[in-house]
Amino acid sequence: MQISGEPSFRESVDLMFNRAVKLMDMSPGLEQKIRVCNSTYTVRFGVRLRGKIETFTGYRSVHSEHMEPVKGGIRYALSVNQNEVEALAALMTYKCALVETPFGGSKGGLCIDPRAWDEHELEQITRRFAYELIKRDLINPAQNVPAPDMGTGEREMAWIADQYARMNTTDINAKACVTGKPPHAGGIQGRVEATGRGVQYALREFFRYPEDVAKARLSGGLEGKRVIVQGLGNVGYHAAKFLSEEDGCIITSIIERDGALLSDTGLDVEDVRQWMNANDGLLAGYPKARHVEDGAAVLEEACDLLIPAAMEGVINLGNAARIKAPLIIEAANGPVTYGADEVLRQKGVVIIPDMYANAGGVTVSYFEWVKNLSHIRFGRMQRRAEEARSRLLVEELERLSADQHLGWSLTADFKERFLTGSDELALVRSGLDDTMRTAYQAMRKIWHERDDVEDLRVAAYIVSISRVAATYRSKGL
Ligand code: GLU
Description:
The chain has helices at 9-21, 28-35, 82-98, 119-134, 154-167, 194-206, 210-215, 234-247, 269-278, 295-298, 338-346, 354-357, 360-374, 383-403, 412-418, 424-449, 456-474; strands at 39-49, 52-64, 70-71, 74-77, 104-111, 144-145, 226-230, 250-256, 259-262, 290-292, 305-308, 327-329, 350-352. By secondary structure, the protein is an alpha/beta fold. Among the domains are: 39-184, Leucine Dehydrogenase, chain A, domain 1 (Rossmann fold); 194-360, 3-Layer(aba) Sandwich (Rossmann fold). Bound molecules: glutamic acid (GLU).
């Protein structure tokens, strides 16, 4: 979305990059090398559908190959364009560096309204798009590994993986050519909800530091915080669901394509989502909350936390001054424009930036890629060994208690939890939690230690750019 009078999404990302780089000691040559997008491939292809040939336009942009494979989702939307794909590819470079997934940044997109086609037609279109990218190594386990993004999910990734396998029959690592696959087709437990889960872990980590919370003019923990969520797609739905069901947040509003739902006492996210699934993705008519048509105006309502989880550019110069939330977590990519970022900073709003906040997806994609390359599910070797060791300890404690007449008894709940070895989902969550905590700590260190660093976004860029620069330097650039 290009807001009139504001830079494009791509320019916005570059301007944010420039703000950070100004505070770093880097040669102009290296700075320029990191900023630019290495290449963008545009493809136009025809598919025979409903008795005629339909032409589609798709992109795959590679921002930085300082590490390979490069990584990033494929978006299906009518709004997809080269500028957007390049901005998103750049964000992938910085995101991967920040959360230490060993990838360069890439992104793809197809100009299509996925709702306009049925499943079989979408499969034909996806396979044809994948064919065009695979034959140019723009999908390849060692070079370029796509994933889901807006408008795509497990189903599309399974088609892409199958298309790659058909075209590379002897590649033993074929499954690693794409992530976000369904578990039965080489995926990993916990990938679907990973981005939303990552948003939850990011917030939990933020709320572990009272001084950071105070910067947002808030206090206490997540319990009871009033939250507005924009977008109930994969990311917004999971983030809102986990925050309300597990952390005691009150979801006072959900904004979607056809307006917003408002509830002072809090919305039941699962119930709203079920309603949407049964009603063409619309909120209108939902019986348990007030519906208003002007969703954009609800972004400006009072709350403790605002979660934009839909499109880029939704908080812009047109509404930034009226935003009341003291804390924003960017679950979407680029929801706050460069200009709005400046306005919000001056107002003292704390923004947990996209490249960190929504990195849960690519983090679990990394685990999936490693799983595919190692050809074994996480936990398969150690789970029962772990349980056997725990059992030894429990049995020994019980024996001691009986022999010495100590009268100790372990509760059934403790025993069950202690005796359960980690399965794949538990390991994925542990790895994601660790990743989100470690990355936050790297950002906040710079935010707190450097007087010239005002905000978490610049801190995040500094961490990422330094890592990308170090990789380039070690390659002799
Ligand atoms: N599309 C997601 C993102 O923007 C996931 C990318 C991935 O898993 O490679 O981060």
